[in-house]
Design brief:
two-stranded antiparallel sheet, TIM Barrel
Length: 256
């Protein structure tokens, strides 16, 4: 899809958005507001992404089979939990009504040279949620070395990820176009049916459009769709709605 205007980019980004609230002060009222915000006059976001403790509440609001999917996080944000604990988190999340699981790899162990820790974790969680969409968070801003980002991408894909995701949004460096380029090329070169999710720090339609254009340049003009691409963001929706309503000029993309 060739994006011709900020309005087209905004509408497309909305359909790809995992509208996120992973704030420490999140409560039931904030979840209710998130569910409402995800359903806009211009269409729905792809999903909401929330803490596990709020899944059941969100499912009560959205109801079974709702077009706005419910994503949650496990082994989040530190990536330090034992495999058995993460599997337990995952099983409970699915039982409560989550459609999608965003899993943080044990990135500190990986950085220290333990590739098997990544494979073991991803395979175990994949087995625990065979019907759910599994997005694997690499925490690229902490890995830093782009060769290791590439290797983490390959390991996550081989172990059963449905998506590879840049970041938790909880560290100093989150999504960057550099990491996105490496991860998208890993998807292309492994020839896997795997999606990509940049997350953290993407707050404008102009920012989002840069990632969309990068994905299209690497994987082709028809590759990007909700089943292959998501944005993890909390404030991006505000700029999307501003552009779609014509209430303000689109803001310039942030640096990275």
């Amino acid at each position: 899809m060739e994006l011709q205007s900020p309005r087209e980019a905004a509408a497309f980004a909305l359909s790809l958005l995992d509208l996120t609230n992973l704030r420490d002060d999140c409560d039931n009222a904030a979840i209710e507001n998130l569910c409402l915000r995800a359903q806009t006059p211009y269409g729905n976001s792809a999903a909401i992404c929330i803490w596990p403790r709020f899944i059941a509440h969100a499912r009560n609001i959205l109801g079974p089979g709702h077009p706005v999917r419910i994503a949650t996080v496990v082994n989040f944000p530190s990536g330090d939990l034992a495999v058995a604990e993460v599997v337990e988190e995952t099983l409970k999340a699915v039982e409560d009504g989550a459609d999608e699981i965003d899993l943080v790899i044990p990135y500190k162990a990986f950085i220290a040279g333990d590739e098997a820790a990544v494979t073991t974790m991803v395979e175990a969680v994949r087995a625990a949620c065979p019907q759910s969409t599994l997005k694997v968070i690499l925490e690229t801003g902490e890995i830093r070395d782009m060769a290791l980002v590439r290797r983490a991408s390959e390991l996550a894909i081989a172990a059963g990820a449905d998506f590879i995701k840049t970041s938790t949004g909880k560290v100093q460096v989150n999504a960057t176009l550099e990491a996105a380029d490496i991860m998208l090329r890993a998807i292309r070169e492994t020839k896997a049916k795997v999606g990509f999710k940049p997350a953290g720090g993407i707050s404008t339609v102009a920012d989002a459009d840069l990632y969309l254009r990068l994905a299209e340049s690497i994987l082709g003009p028809n590759w990007v769709m909700p089943s292959t691409f998501r944005f993890g963001a909390s404030s991006l929706l505000d700029d999307i709605l501003a552009v779609l309503s014509g209430s303000t000029a689109p803001r310039a993309a942030a640096g990275y």
